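Many introductory courses stop at the sequence. We go one step further.
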Amino acid sequence: MEENIFWDKKITAQKVKEILSNDANPRFIEVASFLLSRTNNVRVIFSSYMNKVIFCKNWPQIKAGMRKNKWKDERIIFWDEIYKVVKKELKLRIRKRKPKPVVSETKAIGGIIRKARKDKGWTQKELAKNAGVSQQLVSFVEMGRNNFSFVTLKKISTVLDLKIIIVPQRESNFSTGGSITSTSTSS
């Protein structure tokens, strides 16, 4: 008897197969993330639901979908290992995205955040938990590798007792200068 992976979703196995056969389908990542979070039965996935090449091509987005929905890390690690094996087995060359250039301002802010985190004696994981963001995002912010949103910056700066100040450099110029400073007072 085949396990019922979709016991709590109102979706048929046939509909899942249809969605997962076309990675251009707008629901592809959502359904693939859900499916892989529910089972570690590799044989069933690749024989009944998803093509190995489509899986490998889309694994980074599927993994991001699993993380976004807070699926179990054990499943993500499991499927990440399957991805490596299948990619090697198929001798696939998956093009890696070019890394985004590091912007000096985000790198400077990242350094301030890293120092404030260390001053509190927190790990990146502790900061992430307290700020309600992922540890990976904290790492990217601290390295200056992520063009993070103001909302993210506010969450992180709030738990670190940092104050965000934006000051115009010149009235005639649209660019802004700014800083992020600690609001905590040490005695």
